[in-house]
Multicopper oxidase CueO (Acidihalobacter ferrooxydans), 543 residues
Amino acid sequence: MNRSEDIDHMRRRLLLQGLAAGGALAVGLGPRAAQAQGGMMGGMMGGAQNVAAAGSGVFSRTLPVPPPLHGQADAQGVLHYALRAGSGHSELIGGVRTPTWGYNGALLGPTLRIPRGKPVQMHITNGLGVPTTLHWHGAQVPGKVDGGPHNLIAPGAVWAPAFTLGQPAGTLWYHPHPHTYTGPQVYAGLGGFLLIDDGEDARLGLPHTYGVDDLPLALQDRRLDASGHLVYMNRMPDMMGMKGDRFLVNGVEQPHAEVPAGWLRLRLLNASNERIYHLAVADGREFHVIAGDAGLLEQPVPLRSLLLAPAERAEIVVDLRREQGRSLVLRSDSGAVVPGLYSMPMPVDAYDRGRFDLLQLRVGAPSGLSARLPERLVPAPTPRADEPARGFVRNGMKGGGMMGMMGMMRGGSGGRAADGPGGMSMGIGGRDLFAIDGRYMRMNVIDVKTALGRTALWRVHNRSTMAHPFHVHGTSFLIRSRDGNAPPAHERGWKDVVLVRRGETVELLAPFHHRAGAAHPYMYHCHILEHEDNGMMGQFTVT
Ligand code: C2O
Ligand code: CU
Ligand code: CU
């Protein structure tokens, strides 16, 4: 593909999503959808006025904690969960009414609590006027029930997948995944936590009282117009990824939470479309990372700041035992301080604000709960690649490309050429904008075939000019190396998203325990949703 085809492709996508000159389209929903939604997210005038004057001040509102949903057991012991995607209005910013989408409510969704090893039956109703899907991000479930682009739920329809989560406890999430519309649907408010429970945290003595000393925090940024409507993709720089200038935690701008003096566990989820957070407590104190994307680490890792890319999760524990009566602020200081994240010059645009506050923690009396921070957590995972990696760069950077090349290779068992039946290789980017291996996502093309029950070694190489968070469905993987070195301690647990900085090569070990056939393949993609929607995604089978 050449440069002008790339730009054509991008333009087509942007038009589809509403970046029409002066357009007032319902973003990402198409004209038909725009009508059906009665102008939801419409009125995007392309104007730059924000509701900056509105809002009732920093930390004035209370952090909402999404209600837990435990599921209803039937006679067979199967747990049933019901979610309904629908629309409504929310107060993202104090005093401003914004049309939003949510599950079982106007915004975001309940926290699904799913016991490890228990059969579950989901009932997903599409109460939107447009097709959607619901993907269990991080869950090891068969391709058939993964909720990717092939599991489309028509307006009014119900999708009822059943599965059992056998993987370790972890902080997962769910979100829509319709091909080319994931960005706008998540931006409109769809998404929620999915916590797998196996009791290990309680046995270890970790804080685990939901909503008290164990808080889920979904971090998002949004942009609103003067009338309080969400604005999506109305400026050219947005095609690099949609950023906002208002910072929400669980759907509320800069809230506060009352927390007990003691050990506090925060389950951080970057549910933003594009933004990478560089998180810290404002006073610079140390905290401990106890879990990555998909499970506990071998031991708590002390840090003073933590990078969280889109779709990544981290669980941290903060020591508030001696902080009664004080307040702490969780903030992000992103971008410039971290090399390899963006192209130059920094910041890339006006919405790339360096430092901003997210959440205030007001420390009250001790709760009486006896949580602690154990020295050891869970045994370190040790998978090995079953097949030798003999990957190679398939599409070298030939120059002239705007984005450069992000290549991902996987050595085939036979060490054959990338295209050969015995070999596999993938590349991300090339001279193409937000493509993988020089190709854009096509619903009817399987890009890679992987073997069931084996551990694959995937090598991701980023030669583009920005960082990309790379995500793989159907597995939790381990980072084997970053540029040949062992990953930092807090990245040594199970993960399903890895931020690949520009110029970097990351090796992943990915065991595949479930089947995904050609009719319902798994996805691998960049989790910057505008890149994904633009086609920076590929499909693979596990058979
Ligand atoms: Cu979080 Cu393919 O998705
Ligand atoms: Cu996923
Ligand atoms: Cu990307």
Observations:
- The longest helix spans residues 3-17.
- Residues 18-55, 344-348, 390-431 have pLDDT under 50 and may be disordered.
- The domain at 390-396+434-542 is CATH 2.60.40.420 (Immunoglobulin-like).
